[in-house]
Specification:
By secondary structure, this protein is of the alpha+beta class. It has a single domain, classed as Roll (Thiol Ester Dehydrase, Chain A), CATH 3.10.129. The protein is 16% helix and 42% strand. It is built from two helices and six strands. A six-stranded antiparallel β-sheet has the order 1-2-4-5-6-3, with helices on one face. A hairpin with a 2-residue loop joins strand 5 and strand 6. The protein is globular. The model has no long low-confidence stretch (mean pLDDT 96).
């Protein structure tokens, strides 16, 4: 299953500049997802990180990866309208920088879920090379219950 940006915005509550997934290219709800983030020089973080050597901040790489997992978890109708909140991160590794012009391809899969709590594992690749990986603990909540 492929989702374009319009479908993604029906699932995730994020909006630019914090919407960090451009397309879902594979989706098996509540199991796995693959998504892409096209990194461009026009993004606001590159004005200061770093002016002469732009590098995507690690926290934004992690957020982009988590959002792919969020689409996977929030796609089912019973989860629509919920927000996936970070509960923690483990095994975070950055292997090489992500820079303007790169396409970050994230593969996310569900490790476990119990009720509204769970864990995802995500790997982010640029040109087929591992750029980052992490395990994300999450809780899904209705936005009015935050």
């Amino acid at each position: 299953m492929v989702l374009d940006i319009n479908e993604i915005q029906k699932i995730l509550p994020h909006r630019p500049p914090m919407l960090l997934v451009d397309r879902i290219i594979e989706l098996d709800p509540m199991k796995s997802a693959t998504g892409i983030k096209n990194v461009t020089m026009m993004e606001p973080q590159f004005r200061g990180h770093f002016p002469d050597h732009p590098i995507m901040p690690g926290v934004l790489i992690l957020e982009a990866m988590a959002q792919v997992g969020g689409v996977m978890m929030l796609y089912p109708e019973e989860n629509r309208g919920k927000i996936a909140l970070f509960g923690g991160m483990e095994n975070v590794k950055f292997k090489h920088p992500v820079v303007p012009g790169d396409q970050l391809v994230t593969k996310s899969h569900l490790v476990r879920v119990r009720g509204d709590f769970g864990m995802l594992h995500c790997d982010g690749y640029v040109d087929g090379k591992l750029a980052a990986s992490a395990d994300f603990k999450f809780a899904m909540r209705k936005s009015e219950n935050l």
